[in-house]
Amino acid sequence: MAYTRKDASTLTAGEKRRFVNALLALKRRGEYDEFVRTHIEYFVPDGEDGLRTAHMAPSFLPWHRRFLLDLERALRRVDSSVTVPYWDWTKDRTRTSAPWGRDLLGGDGRRSDHRVTTGPFAHATGNWTLREGITDEEYLTRDLGHAAAPLTLPTRHDLDVALRDPVYDTAPWDSTSRRGFRNRLEGWGAGSGRASWRNHNRVHRWVGGSMVGGASVNDPVFWLHHAFIDLLWTRWQDRHRGARYLPARPPGPADEQRDRIVARHERLPPWDVTPDQLEDVRGIYRYA
């Protein structure tokens, strides 16, 4: 029977406690840091050689869908009642709204060094030491909204621009694709700096601190953010019935994207699964 992923703002006190406790259990066992390492390994920009699966590629959505499922299955081995909640950042848009409560993910970082000092993932609790993809600090950092140079979260209108696009993705199948739902949602825009951060990417930047870069999984809000991204993919599928993951076939021998992206029926590393097999998850979970 399919289980339900809920909006973080609707969770009961008990649901928040069980979700947090399951995350902390994975951290104690060393399992959580495996997820951080996996994301770092597969965070390959399109300016580098080799296969891209997690970002700047058509497989951005199915890759993170499977990544979320792996985390969720690990959580449910700890507590079978737990599912990953989602953060709808089009409505919960302030530094004090869901999910930033002391009983869920904790709040903003302090002004001096962006260190998170509240909630269950504050370093002072002794339960959340960062070990992967860090330079100096071993504590979780956030800079919600970038107080020194304010940045806003994407709006419903920003999302609707992406959701209206009837095509999943288009050539050249990377961060420069100007059409296609995938890149409109992932959020690689033209130019550089703040103006080029859209939708998914802009949320990572809005949270700041540990959420920027390949080691962003170090902040548990990563999962709530990507659960919402996954929900948006289901909404796009409902809106454009029959639209499929693209490309359907691998690029030709003369195409510079040959062997650099995953086509619909090709294996999606690091798993033995294809994007095609991840397009329909209604038998596994649904969204409230």
CATH architecture descriptor name: Orthogonal Bundle
User: Got a strand count?
Assistant: 2
State Rg: 18 Å
Spatial strand arrangement across the major sheet:
1-2
Low-confidence stretches: none
Secondary-structure map with pairings?
Layout: E1 3-5, H1 13-29, H2 31-42, H3 60-78, H4 156-164, H5 181-186, H6 199-207, H7 221-239, E2 285-287
Parallel strand pairs: 1-2
Helix pairs in contact: 1-3, 3-7
Tell me what the structure shows:
The structure is a single chain. With about 290 residues, the protein is an all-alpha fold. The protein has a single domain (about 5-285), classed as Orthogonal Bundle (di-copper center containing domain from catechol oxidase). It has 7 helices and 2 strands. The chain has helices spanning about 15-30, 30-40, 60-80, 155-165, 180-185, 200-205, 220-240, and strands at about 5, 285. A two-stranded parallel sheet has the order 1-2.
List keywords for this structure.
single chain; 7 helices; mainly alpha; di-copper center containing domain from catechol oxidase; globular; 32% helix; two-stranded parallel ribbon; 288 residues
Short overview:
With 288 residues, the protein is mainly α.
